[in-house]
What does this fold into?
Amino acid sequence: MYRLVPSVCSYCGTGCGVLFEVLDGQLLKTLPLKTHPVNQGKLCIKGWNLHEFVNSRMRLQSPLLKVNGRFHDVTWNRALQFTAEKLKGIIEKYGPDSVGVLVSAKITNEENYLLQKFARAVVGTNNVDHCARL
Amino acid sequence: MTNSIAEIEDAACVFIIGSNTSTSHPLIARRVLRAKEKGAKLLVADPRAIQMSHFADVAVNQRLGSDVALLNGMMHLILKNGWEDRDFIKARTEGFEELKETVAAYTPQRVQEISGVSPADLEKMSEIYATRRPATLLYTMGITQHTTGVDNVKSVCNLAMLTGNVGVASSGVNPLRGQNNVQGACDMGGLPNVFPGYQQVANPEANAKFTKAWGRPLPDKPGRTLPDMITAMSEGKLKALYVIGENPKLSDPDANHLKHAFNNLELLIVQDLFLSETAQGAHVVLPAASSAEKDGTFTNTERRCMRLRQAIKPLGNCLPDWEIASRLATAMGYPMSYRNAEEIFREMAALTPSYAGMSYERLGIDGLHWPCPTADHPGTKFLHPVQFTRGLGKFHAVQYQDPRELPDAEYPYYLTTGRMFAHYHTGTMTRVSPALDREQPTGYVEINPQDAFKLKVREGEVLVISSPRGRIEAPAKISPEMLPGNLFLPIHFGENPTNVLTNSEALDPLAKIPEFKVSKARVEKLVE
Amino acid sequence: MKDKVRDWLETGKVDLFLGYKQVDGHPLPHAFSKENLAELGELIVSPARYALEKLATEILAIKPALKIGILGRDCNQRAVNVLTVHQQISPGQIQILEVNCCPSPLRKHAACSTLQPQTYGAVKLELGVDNNMSVAQMDQFDQESLYSRWMYEFQKCLKCYGCRDICPVCFCKECSLENNDLVATGGLPPEVPLFHLIRAVHMAGRCVDCGLCEEACPVDIPLRLLYRKVNGIVKDLFGYETGGSHEQPPFSLLGESTPPEAEPHSKAV
Ligand code: SF4
Ligand code: SF4
Ligand code: SF4
It folds into this structure.
């Protein structure tokens, strides 16, 4: 029912240790992890409010497909099938280097690994970059 | 970072250049202040009078883009006074004679002309940095987001090597990473020329290794960087773009040029938490789970790989990014069937020497610093203790170059961009937070009180800022932190997009980092 | 201790018990319940303190029917008293299993296992205020020195609001620190010394001297000392002992706007 889950702040590159307070599957609050070697039980204003973006009402909740200039909710199957077919078509017509993949400083190592693997092994291009220069 | 965050506390000198540390990395600012309180000398070089400047023993406001001159000037004085570390230079470096020749021309008078820093301050800084060891040097985008970004970084390294401040606890050259997992994205091969662990795609051995592991022939020619992709998009050569968790429409320079490039795409896939400016233009949008809704690891700025643990179920139909990627790969005819993030971590660690000794179990809560090559290796707190990766450390003699744009009669102001303390990056993750939004709900332009007086503008009145690229409006924030003739725009606010003004043509030739930190601009009061 | 908690859970004296458990080498707060009695073997007293009564109050705001037990030191007890006095919880909603160690002058008998005095750098002692100082020692500085020392400390503030967010007795729905007419927003440091003085005034008759705010402050501002000073005045003038019992009427300074409803400000969005 009530749990505290250790995690890491996902704002800046300092990587402060946090505890997420979870009640009945809902994220209540964020606390500093007191004994963490990086932040020693302290956080900045962003870390203290880490749960707020997770709980935001602005979050996307369903895959969206644009038809005639407007977004429509679709199932995962539909969204992924559309994407895969379009991508395959483009690769066939213009070659793999006509595709680019922008991985991210906001996602995990595992996900970055998998997405560059996707670009290199599945699409067949080294057009992989991220926005860290910016 | 070559050194770890905790080590900062025990430095005898901390030199901050081009980093508004208390705003962008508050918990690193903590360590700097503690170092200071334990007796370290603090040097701050920043075009603005930032919070950390108040605590500095020497604080200077160099002109925007004049860092190379400032650093060469410091090296000039260090050599002149014999403060360099001769043993270190002899045993561990090469290229010293060239450096010596180059910096000989950077006399304090010349440095003052270029940077505006007085000879007296320059002398004090040089002496403190060279003689109070160990000295640690911290920098961020204020150093890299210039056409001379790579030169700036080289100069910073020259200075550290000249004084032997490398490979020792509490010393080093420490770039502070802006976003939580920039380090990890690079480590994992999120770059056009390398596989995970910086193994070159063009290296036949590395290429063969990954070809074998992934079961597909892999391209061996380095791919396009982001700015090159954008050019290729405008030229119609790049037809599909898959954007994950980023908002390049707001974070890239030169919004107008970008708009045209994006309109050329046949397929734009955006995977994100929010319908960002970029997602709005997508053909398909894939909703991703947040960091509280999945397992995985982040690698922070000190190379410490740490675990995220799933706290709650993904919202609605959201999926973790790794699961979306697996499903998409499967739909493309390359089956991926990972049961969890840990399985992916194991596959990655087996292919990445610097992470090879890590496992979820070993990471625990504290995490491990890479390189961690074997299961019994304790991780590496500071780099280069004995040798540089390429043997001897090389001095790269660098000449000062003006920023691409300097103010002129038509655009008399210097314009620079950056962060404010309550927001993050393009604001997609912070502006939705009520507490953070309350702290700063709108964009603004910071301007010096004298300039504001000249323009007869009061706090909160709207100013029009224009550059050769475009114009935006933003309310004035009058701040003594700004030098006269300088404007500052925070990057977080889509309704006042700074990248309408900045220059995408001005890139560092090697790193391809745009010059966000210096543009010329004009500013007027809005007449309604 | 474990037997007692088992007894409390089994007999229904409490529905949930907040204690600590070691996770990967870190003592973390953990909720024990009747459903997972086996876990009780892992219950520990943590050297690192979390405001368990604050966590319990947050849970109770959403589930008022629950009874929650916590592992508590004297500071936790005092905070529970203040929370009761200010009607954030009802008497008996939070049960405390005592493990005592309090160094506060509000409680004279024991030494605290966690609040070992930290050592601070020489420059801080020269320019700022030593966090280990007593109010009496601080009072020996002359006016000018006192002023410059506190200003030095306040100027370090990173406006994290951690001092407020961690405080077990901060529960106002509308926080004066967030009143834009009182404190300007958008810059660092926050308005000095206004930001800190507003909080200090609001802690009069509330602060139970637990020291958590100071532990959460990223820049080592001696917040507890500041609030001790303010509470000392309250005690001298009004004879009010903060957190002494849960039966005394709430103490409030003129102009303080604690909303009378028993609703914490801390609801998630
Ligand atoms: S709490 Fe603040 S300093 Fe720490 S990682 Fe998050 S944003 Fe960075
Ligand atoms: S010491 Fe600090 S955290 Fe504890 S009650 Fe007083 S103000 Fe709140
Ligand atoms: S905890 Fe410290 S830094 Fe944070 S707001 Fe309070 S006084 Fe300022």
The CA atoms of residues 183 and 191 of chain C lie 6 Å apart.
